[in-house]
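Sharing in case it's useful to others searching the archive later.

Someone asked me privately for the predicted structure of Asp/Glu/hydantoin racemase, so I'm posting the question and my answer publicly. Question first, with the sequence:
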Amino acid sequence: MSRLAVINPNMSVGFTDKIRDQAQRTIYPHNQVIALNPDFGPDSIEGYYDEAFASVGLLSVIRTLDPTGIDGYVVACFDDTGVDAARCLTHAPVMGLCEGAIRFAQALAGRYAIVTPMHVSVRPLEHLVRKYGADRDCVVRAAGVRTLDFEGENAAMAYDALYQRAQKSLHDDGAEAIVLGCAGMTDIADRLKSDLGVPVIDGVQAAIKMVEGLAELKLATSKHSTYGTPPAKSYHGMFDGFAPAFV
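And my answer, the predicted structure tokens:
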């Protein structure tokens, strides 16, 4: 049995509940998954500024969970918030939603579009697309809604904006598949796939299946160089407890 942790690095409990439901439907029955968020940080992650603060909360959760025997982590934010730092903190494999979704999309379509809620997220995601070597075949577009619109009274409006933007990408960008660019969209992936008639990749599902596979194969994050444990040193003030000497 593999024990997986899915961490929503923002404070939206509604998103965490949706992510937990999707995770439990996605993993194999013999495996176990927990889903949680930090107890401090931003309500949502919409750009670089939010991401910087959310990364600290993410790392605090991993520091707490790692001694309990977690076999793999999913960072449930499409910005892949703090993924590289998390890989330095744990031996267990760590996967962000963007990287997981791109790997799935590359196997399903020659060209695809990531549709994210806000325009402020487009450039950060384009940087990730280049990092993952997918910039020739992938475009990033925004639906023009807030991330938190995908829950509560604005959910219907947000879905309509997402659908319209996805349709436009199929027609104007030559996309053959759509990637959902936000963890909060995880519960509408099947509906959008049915409405559009093309593959719709949910990063939550994709990242979970990738981490689950790595855990089942007993593969761990290499500590040889890039993701090696950081050298011991002092941190000060509010970050004292994060000093690498305690890793």
